[in-house]
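Suppose you are handed a protein chain with no further information: no name, no annotation, nothing but its sequence. What can you learn? This example shows the usual starting point.
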Amino acid sequence: MSEAVRQICIEAFALLSITRISADEFSPNIASQKVLLHNHFKQEGTLKCRL
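A reasonable first move is to predict its three-dimensional structure. Written in structure tokens, the prediction is:
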């Protein structure tokens, strides 16, 4: 999964002229958090409630 995230980010930045990618993960899912951190995503905040 980590390799897939890496490839998607590379392609998105190269082909779409974007400057930022964000991701939401289910808080208890530690594996998803590790995949994002491994791919240089940074946690900027915690969503307390979602409608």
